[in-house]
Design a protein that fits this description.
This is ScbR family autoregulator-binding transcription factor. Keywords: DNA-binding, Transcription, Transcription regulation. The protein is mainly alpha-helical. 64% of the residues lie in helices and 0% in strands. Helix 5 crosses helix 6, helix 5 packs antiparallel against helix 7 and helix 7 crosses helix 8. The longest helix is centred in the first third of the chain and has 28 residues. It is elongated and about 60 Å long. 38% of the residues are buried.
Length: 230
């Protein structure tokens, strides 16, 4: 068990170091030597867990959706608003979330697959569930609207990063929802939805604790529960 715990801790140290380097330098300029220095591990330890820089980048992008918690009950529309605030909080406080976002925006499409699909699927699922619950207008196309919301969020966070280093991102996300909600839901529903988020995003589960409990070589358990979380 001690060996397993050390392996999990080593993997986590490598991922976190790689995230900070990708966040600082982007994919092309990120050097494995700098990742090794920040992780304080040997080259052999790095290659045991990740055979290449590409696999490290993929691991970071794969973890993006684990930075949000989707409530299993309650308003699905409010849940959708809340996960955007959770991710906004992560972008301000979590290098891994920032690194995954930077890699995505830079067009690091490993294996030819773009990194937005899981986000599209998660948002589309919540919109469909909200529509089934009578919260979203029947004419709303879940898939098209999901892509629009993810794209709009991406643009908003880029502007926030450029102007204030994302210190005002959650306020900008609230404004985003103030403008989107009237187009997708009923007036009677809007008054029950909180565009600024209904829950404290800082209360999201600590992934480091989860990783410490996982078996050797296991990936962190996703916080989403959808069959195709985005």
């Amino acid at each position: 068990m001690a060996k397993q715990a050390r392996a999990v801790q080593t993997r986590r140290a490598i991922v976190e170091a790689a995230a900070s380097v990708f966040d600082d330098y982007g994919y092309e300029r990120a050097a494995l030597s700098e990742i090794l220095r920040r992780a304080e591990v040997t080259k052999g330890a790095l290659y045991f867990h990740f055979p290449s820089k590409e696999s490290l980048a993929q691991a970071i992008m794969d973890e993006q959706t684990t930075r949000v918690r989707v409530p299993e009950s309650g308003s699905r529309l409010q849940a959708l608003v809340d996960i955007t605030h959770q991710f906004a909080y992560s972008l301000a406080h979590d290098p891994l979330a920032r690194a995954g976002t930077r890699l995505s925006i830079e067009g690091v499409f490993l294996n030819g697959v773009h990194p937005w699909g899981e986000w599209f699927d998660l948002v589309a699922r919540l919109l469909t569930e909200a529509k089934e619950a009578g919260e979203v207008l029947p004419q709303v196309n879940s898939e098209e609207t999901a892509e629009f919301i993810v794209s709009a969020f991406t643009g908003v966070q880029l502007v926030s990063e450029a102007i204030t280093k994302r210190t005002d991102l959650r306020g900008r996300v609230a404004i985003l929802w103030h403008n989107i909600l009237p187009a997708i839901t009923y007036p009677g529903v809007i008054i029950r939805i909180k565009p600024e988020g209904a829950t404290d995003p800082s209360l999201a589960r600590d992934d480091d604790e989860t990783a410490a409990e996982a078996p050797e070589g296991a990936e962190p358990e996703p916080l989403t529960t959808s069959p195709a979380a985005s």
